[in-house]
Amino acid sequence: MARNKNYGKQLELPVETGVVQHSWNEGRYRIALIYPNTYHHGMSNLGFQTVYHLLNQRDDCLCERFFLPERDKKTQLFAPLISVESGRQLKDFELIAFSISFENDYLNLPIIFELANIPLFAAQRDDSFPLVLFGGVCAFINPEPLADIVDLVAVGEAEPILPGLLKTLLQTNQPRNAVLKNLAQQPGIYVPCFYTPEYSESGEQQVVNAEDGAPQQVQRQFLADLDTSPSRSFIQTEATEFGQMALTEVSRGCSRGCRFCAAGFVYLPPRERSLDNLLDQVDSGLCERQRIGLVAAAVADYSKIQELQQGILDRDGQLSMSSIRLDALTPDEVALLNQAGHRTVAIAPEAGSQRLRNFINKGISEEQILDSVHMLADGGIRNLKLYFIIGFPEEEQSDIDAIVALTEKISVIWRESGRKRQQMGNLILSVNPFIPKPFTPFQWAGMEGEKSLKKKVRFLQSAVSRIPNCRMNSESLRGAVLQTFLSRGDRRIGAVLPVLAAGGNLKQLCRKANLSLDFYVYRPRDKDEFFPWEIIDQGVTRDYLWNEYQLACREKTTLPCFPGCRRCGVCNDQVCCC
């Protein structure tokens, strides 16, 4: 428990194990690692924990954590912004490193800078202030909305970037600009101040001119061999969503090629850890928790998933999986899930109609969905969560009707199984709007209008309410519009963040700032339009993404092989046949 006289009675911190706290008298380079949301959210993030571990295992660095402080319910004042480990302020550190996984957390940055009494925009900070780094998946999806706020961006995964970054930062007695010039030459480091945006007559951030020898594009970095660096819950605390389990990363990337999924493209090529490596991490996790949470974009696609599951159970552990893959499910796997104590399982049909599932390249049929539901029901799983997305390009009312029809078929199976075991379970629909993300084939599409989406949500809520033991949750449409605005924005977006953070209305702010919400959110893009995020080279070609988009729009069902995949899009074979 840490005390601070400036905030009420006390600032309460949860009990933690695994924390590293280095002495400030050892001359280490001091890094403040910030997750710009609450402790509860940040400590649930495996990437954040992995970076903390990578930094603190070095002999020349110390890293302490910061989170968005809690707000007093009566006064609405924030608690002090101090580090978890030693109660230090941000100004005491040499590098401020933000780990950002969700674009809507951008709105917490103005609050954090204000609490730290540090200027928000990079141009207003001199050598007396710490350097500010932007990392996390948002940094290599589209860094441009924060380009005028941060000093440098880590484009890619932390493991290959940190050694070169820290080598330069540890070179003392260099002014800020000299350090940034050196960093701009390093793979995976983007220094926005050395790039000047230009805008076309129609308003697009069309060209970014590189200065001081900076590369025209910054190539995303990735860790080729995951076995060389563990990624798990290095710090255990019960004050998170997954506090009762030890998380372990199984793999990175996904070979499925769903056209709407940014994670499936920006983490290419797909990589997985060896079974021995994972079991070693499981052993470490079981020293702290009885349940192991397996984390990946596609956990069920892991080549030795059943051996891994059985290995956890053989060690008297329990297991949890974030979701399962419908076409990879087997009765044996369901039995393992039941044995591990799973009462709720999540599956993701994404769309109700086969036409739309083909359009998004989901690669599953209704027959496969229903067969999987039968297996789960017969295997003793009590509750089922179904993920659907509405507002896809080319979506029609018949596709919305198909969500209801598919849910009704699943409900019949679920109720019949419940009657047999004399224990009725629940169906939970999670229905969220489509957000056209950078570096996906749908980056040329626009988001569907808010009024139309509201109509679809109301229709589904009404229909689902009539299905027994079934309920529906949906994301805030206003929040989804904001996420689209932030994820597809350019440098001009940064100027409105402080007012948005203060509770300003997005539409009104855009009008005052001479920005068009339609321009960023709703309009479809032309083939040759330059995107602000293309300062990054993701390794997936623009031509490939465009061809995938055109194939989708023509509703083709025979698809080219996904780059780097192990599943052919032509024959749906699990071994790539290209």
Defining key terms:
single chain; about 575 residues; alpha/beta; Rossmann fold; six-stranded mixed beta sheet; four-stranded parallel beta sheet; 18 helices; about 30% helix; about 15% strand; globular; disordered N terminus
Tell me, briefly, the overall form. globular
Number of strand segments:
19
Helix fraction by DSSP (H/I, runs of at least 4): 25-40%
Which fold does the CATH topology of the domain at 29-219 refer to? Rossmann fold
Count up the helices. 18
Strand content: 15-25%
User: Which class best fits the helix and strand makeup?
Assistant: alpha/beta
Largest sheet, if any?
6 strands, mixed
State mean pLDDT (0 to 100 scale).
90
- Name of the level-1 CATH class of the domain at 29-219: Alpha Beta
Short description:
This protein has helices at residues 39-42, 46-56, 109-116, 158-169, 176-184, 263-266, 275-286, 305-314, 331-339, 354-359, 366-378, 397-421, 450-465, 477-487, 497-501, 506-512, 517-522, 542-553; strands at 29-35, 61-67, 95-99, 131-135, 152-154, 189-190, 195-199, 205-210, 218-219, 245-249, 251-252, 271-272, 291-295, 318-321, 344-350, 383-390, 427-433, 470-474, 536-537. By secondary structure, it is an alpha/beta fold.
Can you tell me about this structure?
Helix content is 31%, strand content 15%. It is α/β, with parallel strands linked by helices. It has a domain at 29-219: Rossmann fold (3-Layer(aba) Sandwich). The protein has a six-stranded mixed sheet. A four-stranded parallel sheet has the order 15-16-17-18, with helices on one face. Strand 16 (383-390), helix 12 (397-421) and strand 17 (427-433) form a beta-alpha-beta unit.
